[in-house]
Amino acid sequence: MLLANSVNxxxxxxxxxxxxxxxxxxxxxxxxxxxxIDPGRKFALYPTDASINxxxxxxxxxxNFLSIAQTAFAQLNSETVTIKAWAKCELCxxxxxxxxxxxxxxxxxxxxxxxxQILSKRPYIFLTYLRVYxxxxxxxxxxxxxxxxxxxxxxxxxxxxxxxxxxxVFTQQRHQLEHRLPPPHPELEELQNAIAQLSINNLTGxxxxxxxKIFLGWTESLHLRQSDPDLDWINTIADLGxxxxxxxxxxxxxAGTDFExxxxxxxxxxxxxxxxxxxxxxxxxxxxxxQPYPLVGECKAGRKIPNPTAVQLLNLxxxxxxxxxxxxxxxxxxxxxxxxxxxxxxxAIIQGMAIINPETLEKLVKLQSKHRNSVDLFKxxxxxxxxxxxxxxxxxxxxxxxxxxxxxxxxxxVKNYLQNTGLDNAGVEALxxxxxxxxxxxxxxxxxxxxxxxxxxSPLTGYLGRIKxxxxxxxxxxxxxxxxxx
Length: 486
Description:
Helices cover 43% and strands 20% of the residues. The chain is built from 19 helices and 15 strands.
């Protein structure tokens, strides 16, 4: 029995492993099977080795994709394959020698030389446009060297509700490829490839890599961050701080070190510049951040924060920073589990040190993960009050979430207004009028709404587009992409 949005698969299409990786990453929407694929046909994507290609890997794939291609081939197993996605054919074009292969190459992962080589061996290239869906559970299958399709037994049930690319992004990429429109940002594609290689162990680099992919239309913000395994560490912050892993045999020293590492990663993810010269350990301050303002921190994993922690942070901070003035100017943060004792809380208040639980830090990082750059570190500093500060930081998180809900509401308002009226864009006065009949989250003056619409139409956010008028009242706005509030 099929559930809603479910599909039964009984076959898998063989494609080179890098081609499937490009489809899963959202940087490609087309493949080159050896035969014509009927539109509407659905199948799993079965990765194969380089023997299926007519040229060596270095000549077959474009330079900005070559490193990914080499990695994809290197990860193949000689006995089994891992199937990570399935696809539905949306269109199959027949390409012959009259086609401008250079233009096609610029829009895909293959070199012009590879396309020419295929046409020298075959009468046509079958360019198949694929709507790709990741599998919730990968399928392990034995290596099969025969034919273009592999058959499953029994049938595999998959779901059609979460494609790699949204309807809007897929339609945009399909239009570009069908009409051979030049890629709008080839330089960014080259930059993304370089950053991807440099960011393997660098959180800031990974974030920049993700942002470029979003800008290029290879993915969308919410889908990427919720599914990115590189961010799984965020869910471990509270557990590491509360020593939830001590029953697995983790020593006290190792538990403390693990928590220090995840705290430094967290602060870096929030936007602080972590000074790794001050790396903790015996006799060292656990965390020192130099930008956008100095911050010193002490991390305590366990059941509770020891009473001497405030004194320890005071002594080690001044010793290691070697500047009483710098230490006094710095934000001072203690991160550890449980309620602080009266003695610790009083000492923290006297020394201007904020105390927060690991759970609070995890909430902050999750907020930043869902909504990039939503955490304003200078505003956050105002909520890091001396003493137990979890309630204050929770207030800040609630305030940010309220602001995001308002902006999400305005993006949806523009989208709905244009759909209902059939217009391509709308002025701020009309949108302000529609706002009051849209169950608004809070009252807004026209000028206030305009300021937020400008923010949402910035090239760095890109939720709305803006047609600038002679004055602010004649600006017009149009919808680009959703802003999920959750």
